Structure formats: C-alpha cells, structure tokens
Amino acid sequence: MVVSRRDVLLGSTAALGAASFSFPAPAIAQSETIKIGCLAAMTGPSSAPTIGFNRGVNFAVEAINAAGGVKGRKLEIIMRDTQGDPTKAVNATQELISQLKVHGIWGPLNSGEALATTPIMARAKVPNIHPCVVETLIDVTKYPNAFRMAPSNSQWDDAVRNYCLNILKVKKVAVMGDTTGYGVTAVGASVAAFKKDGAEVVYQANIDSTQPDMTPDMLRARNAGTEAIVVWSVSTGMEGRMFNTRATMNWDVPFVGHPSMSSGEIAGLVEKPENWKKVYAIGYKSCSYDASGKLPAKSEDLVARLDKANIALNDTLLWWVAGGIDAIELFAKAVETSGSTDGPGIIAYLNSLSTYPGYFGNYSWSPTQHNGYLTSEVVMSEASTAKNGTFALAPGYT
Amino acid sequence: MLGSIIAAGLASGAVYALVGVTYNTMFSTSRVMSFTAGQLAMLGGVFGSMFTLKLGLPLIAGFLLTLVLCAIIGIITEFIAVRPVLKSLDQHLYVLSTLAVALMIQQVAAIKWGTEPQPFPRLLGLGSGVWDEKFWLPVLACAITIAALEYLYRRTLVGRAFLAIAEDNFAARALGLPERNLRIASYALAGIIGGVAGYSSGELLLAFFANGALLNFYGFVPVALGGLGNNRGSIVGGLALGLFQQAANFLVGGIFSSVAVFALFIVVLLAAPQGVFGGGTVRRV
User: Which residues contact B246 (CB under 8 A, 6 or more apart)?
Assistant: First the structure.
C-alpha cells in the first residue's frame, strides 16, 4: 500500500478535526463557571438595600463554592453597579447578556430600574429573579423569564388591610400618602381595596412630604373618626412629623403601613422615643422575633451562620441578606436539577417550585404565576424595635 | 386650629420672607436674581445639623460656622455665576448660571449629606404645642435680621454704600465707591441671611437637601408680591404667604394648598404687576 503525502495530510486534518469537535467539548462544559449577573445600585441614594442583598449573595456563593460548587462547577458572580439609574441598568443588562453571556440575572433591586431592564431580559430569554414590588413587572405572557421573590405592592396592601380589619379590628381608616407617583397610586389602590372589603375610609390624603406641619391632615383625620391611619410613603421626614403631631394631639391612633416607617432614620426625627410606638410597618414572618425575642428556627440558624462568617446585620435588614442568599441558591438548584445552564431548563425548574423553603420565605411559582412570595408570610412589625435587622412581631399575631 | 394656622403659618412665612430678603440682597448690588437663595437656606439647616448634632460642637460655634460657610458659598456664587454674566444682563444668562450653581449645591448636598431628612438639634428647649420654639424661632430670627438690616442700611457707611450701589450703580462708581467689593460683600451678607433662615427653621424643616428647591420657589413669591428689591414688601409678602398656605392646608388639604397659593399669586400679579409694595422706578434727569 502506497501512502502519499496527500493521504497523510488528509488523515491528519481529519484526526485534528475529530479531536477538536468531539471529546473535549463536555470537559469544557463541566469546568465552565455558572455565571450569574447581578444588577445592583451599589452607590448612590438607593444603595442601602444592595449592601444587604450583596452580603447574602456573597455568603451564598462562597458557601456553595466551598462545598464543591454545583456538580463541580463553580458559581461566578458578575456584579454591575447601576447607581439607581435605569439607563445604566439597561447598559449593564445588555453587557451581561450579549458580551458576558450570563446564565441568569439577579436584580435589579429597585422597580425603576427593573421597569427598564425586564423587557430586555425577556427578549433574550435570560432567567431573571428580582425582589421589586411594582405589579407590572410580573407578566407571564410578556416576561415568562421573570420571577419575583418578594411581595408585590398588592401583597403589601393585602397584609396591611388584613392587620387593620382582622387583627386591630378597626372599621374606620384614614389612608395617607405622599404626592409622588408611588404615593398617589398606592393610596388610590389601598382606598379601593379597603372599601371593597367593607371598611369605611373616613379620610384620604396625599401630602407634600416637605410640608413642615402635619396638624391639618391629622386633625381632619381625627375629626372624621379615624381608628387607624394607613401610610403609603417612603418619606421618613413626613412619617416622623406625623408621629410627632400625633403625640402633640394626645392621640393614640395606630399607624399601619409602609416599611419605611421602621427605618432607623426615624429614631432621630421623633421628638421622643415613645412617639414611635403604636407604629406597625410591613415586615416578614421569617425576620420577626416573638415576645421571647426568638426568630423562627430556620432564621435563628441563619443568623448564627452569618454571625460565624462575620457578616454584620446591625446596619442592614435580615430580609435583604436572606433574599440575596435565596436568589443564588435558587439559581444553583435550578442548574443542578435541570442539569445545565440553559435558560429554558432554569425557567422550567423555577416554574415547578411549590413552597420551596428559602430563608426569606417559601416560594411558589408556576407557568401561570410568577409572584413567588406568599402573602401569608407578610406580617406587621413594631416599627421601633429594630434588632440586628429584625423586628418584633406586631401585637395580635399568634 | 386657629392657633396652629397662626403658629405654623408665621413660622413658614418668616422663612419665606428671609429667603425673599436673601434674593433682594443679592439683587440690589448686581441686578441679578440669583436662584441660589433657597439653597443657601437649605445649607443653613444642613450645616447647622452637621456641626451641632453630628460633630457635637456647641450651639454658638455651630451657628457661627454655619454662617461663615454660607457666606463663603454666597461669595463663590458671585465669582462663578454672577460676575461672568454681568456684562450681558439683558440676555438674562444669570438665570442659567445661578440655576446651575443651585443644582450643583443641591446635588453635592444630596451625595454628601444624604437624600433623607436628618434631625436638627433642639436649640433652646423652650415651649410646646403652638408655642414650641420651632414655630417662633424663625419669626424671631426674621425680626432680628430685619432690625439689623435697617440699622446697617440707615446708620452705617457701608450700608449707605450698599444703598447707593443699589440705587445707581454707575453714579456710585463715579463717586469712587468700590462697587466690586461691595457686590462681593452683599453676596456674603445674602449667604448669612440665608444661613440664618435655614438654621432658625431647622427644627421645623429638618436638615434636608430638597428644602433648597422648595425655598427657592416659595421664597421667590414674596419677592414678586412685595416688589423686587423691596425688603419690607418681602417680609409682608412672606408672612402673608405662610399664613395663607397654612390656612389652605387646613381648609382644602395639602395637595390643593399649593394650587391655592399659586392661584392667589397669579391673581395678585395680574392686579399689581410691580408687586403690591413695588413702585415704578423713578430716575432724576
């Protein structure tokens, strides 16, 4: 048999081609990191939640990678600072999807940015988990890739209404908010829901948050026979003034509503610490301690682990940290169960979850429902009782 | 209710009046409406809180340092936003330059100080209810400022030089008055008046970066109502605005009170375009 140079050349080319196309490919897939993009306002005025969420994200990534990763593959977090700016969030999203080819995205962490980025992620079919509250961010038809792992606005509203009507057992409420778009929308929705449930909304107002004296609205609310004041605002200045005015009026009406009423900044804005009592802000079962000062067992365990890892909780909220851990663990479980980093596999796994036990809460998603947090886990907290990012459960819960 | 309207109305009105006087002080020597007036008042609250609450300085030291810094900001405004556009006043470039400086002040305050309202220390610890010091301190500060300005303008050589510049810039320069130095001094004085407004109302308005835009707006109303450059008109206009605004808060609610205030403002200006206390400029020939 005569072997020509042409035969050698052809044979070598075929061997090289076979070598490069067949065997090494699985080896690359097995060693490739699982890339999770994070969109977070790490700097700027909206950065407080990010600090907490990031502690959870980093904690979860380190724990999973230290245990060998997901089927041998390490998690890689690719963080982008959006500075709270939707334009920057859009640019970062495009970079994460087109250039960095991430397998899933956690965030953005505020609704303003998410409104801009969610359609982009949907077009690219990238699995997305976020904690933003605006209702329209979840739409299984338009955004089948987007999953909410925190309550929506209407779930907050349901929890507040439930506390007022079924636990405080009041029938006459005043609903107040600020004059921002959020305040006006939230007050309108809250008033409609209270009326639908048979309660009497005796006073309704949107107040300029810079108004120095809250007496006019508080007086009108009292004269109308208000038994509880529901507050929808993120303005701690306005809330602090309302609490001080209530004290000046010698009125003991309870305030119920937005989580910002439990912000640490209010401590400096109230004239006396007791002015901040009887204020019940939205909180979560997993992050609320009972009369004996104990968190639920799973949360106690988490706090102990975080403490061991030297992760501070005294300047943030436990739910932010726990939410960050849950988001990363959900991506890891999705890759592990589906056996790949393909978007459809991750989305199918998330769609199959029913009361998945996270640290922040139990999540349930299906192909027709992407609001994963259970309303029953949203509770009221005593606003002035912050302790290591957790709050005392408001009175009336068993 | 009446007590609350009067107390809160006079307090807010006194702050608006002082911001109006700040506008007038800068206008008198430069013929420029500097839209940094409200920001100077905002800084009065922010610096006051920073020095006395965060840094723990004694009240007097904190107050004086606040005034010094506000005066410096006033002087910087004159250098970077007013002086370059004085030669083309008729083009109204000062609107752009002073608004730009105002926005810069606001953004820097937001970044460095924070976007949430911060507490302001209780200054004297006197009074409660409608007699609380947070209501009467701005009124007292307004009264003292007006008395001091009257003394300055009527009884001192520097004050008379200010009036001369305000009355006729060219004639004053021809007489040898140092117009540029007097203009710098008037911007420093405006900074001090703005600082007094912010410091005295800190307990009421808190130390909040967004107060600047609010005071710019509401402080301009008494200037327009009282007549440009007319301090007495600004005082009356400011106090009337505060009382009317607080009464509207009670009668029609917070969200509509701004509408009521500006409806009245437009009606007054339609009836008296020079302002209620303003008159046509008379020039001897």
Answer: A213, A216, B4, B5, B8, B9, B12
Q: Do A213 and B4 touch (CB under 8 A)?
A: yes
Task: Compare CB distances from B116 to A179, A217, A236 and report the shortest one's residue.
Answer: A236
Q: Which residue has the higher pLDDT, A391 or B262?
A: A391
**Does residue B281 sit within a domain?**
no
pLDDT at B280 over 60: no
| A333 φψ region: left (φ > 0), alpha (ψ -120 to 50), beta (else) | alpha
Residue B215 lies in a domain: yes
- What does the pLDDT read at residue A23? 44
Per the domain annotation, does B283 fall within a domain? Answer: no
Q: Which domain holds residue B254?
A: 2-271
- Residue scoring higher pLDDT (A201 or B248): A201
The residues, any chain, with a CB within 8 Å of residue A25's CB and separated by 6 or more, are: none
DSSP string, B6-75: HHHHHHHHHHHHHHHHHHHHHHHHH----TTHHHHHHHHHHHHHIIIIIS---HHHHHHHHHHHHHHHHH
| β-bridge partners, B118 | B207
Number of domains in chain B: 1
**Rounded distance between C-alpha atoms, residue B29 and residue B161, angstroms:** 10
Angle (deg, nearest 10), helices B179-200 and B59-77: 140
Q: What is the pLDDT of residues B174-194, one digit of tens each?
A: 888 898 899 999 999 999 999
- Distance to chain A for B35, nearest Cα, Å: 19
What pLDDT is recorded for position A25?
A: 45
CB contact under 8 A, A45 and B114: yes
What length is written for chain A? Answer: 398
Q: Where are the domains of chain A?
A: 30-152+300-374, 154-290+380-392
pLDDT of residue A26: 47
CA angle B125, A240, A386 (to 5 degrees): 110
Give the minimum alpha-carbon distance from B119 to chain A in angstroms, rounded to a whole number.
5
Amino acid in position B217: F
Question: Is residue B156 in a domain?
Answer: yes
pLDDT of amino acid B239: 93
Yes or no, beta carbons of B117 and A236 under 8 Å apart? yes
Q: Is residue A127 helix, strand or coil?
A: coil
Q: Which residue in B118, B208, B250 is closest to A268 by CB distance?
A: B118
CATH class, range A154-290+380-392? alpha beta
Do A216 and B254 lie within an 8 Å CB cutoff? yes
CATH number at residue B43: 1.10.3470
Q: Which of A280-284, B187-191, B244-248 has the lowest mean pLDDT?
A: B244-248
Q: Do B129 and A248 touch (CB under 8 A)?
A: yes
Whether this model's ipTM surpasses 0.85 comes out as no
Number of A:B CB contacts under 8 A? Answer: 70
Chain A residues touching B211 at Cβ < 8 A: 210
**Helix B2-30 × helix A215-223 angle, to 10°:** 160
Q: In whole angstroms, what separates CA B191 from the centre of its chain?
A: 9
Q: What is the pLDDT of residues B158-179, one digit of tens each?
A: 889 988 888 888 888 888 889 8
Question: Is residue B30 a contact partner of residue B186, using CB atoms and an 8 Å limit?
Answer: yes
- Assign domain A30-152+300-374 to a CATH class: alpha beta
With an 8 Å Cβ cutoff, the interface of chain A facing chain B consists of 45, 179, 205-208, 210-213, 215-217, 219-220, 235-237, 240, 248, 263, 265, 268-269
Please report, in angstroms and rounded to a whole number, the separation of the first and last CA atoms in chain A.
Answer: 91
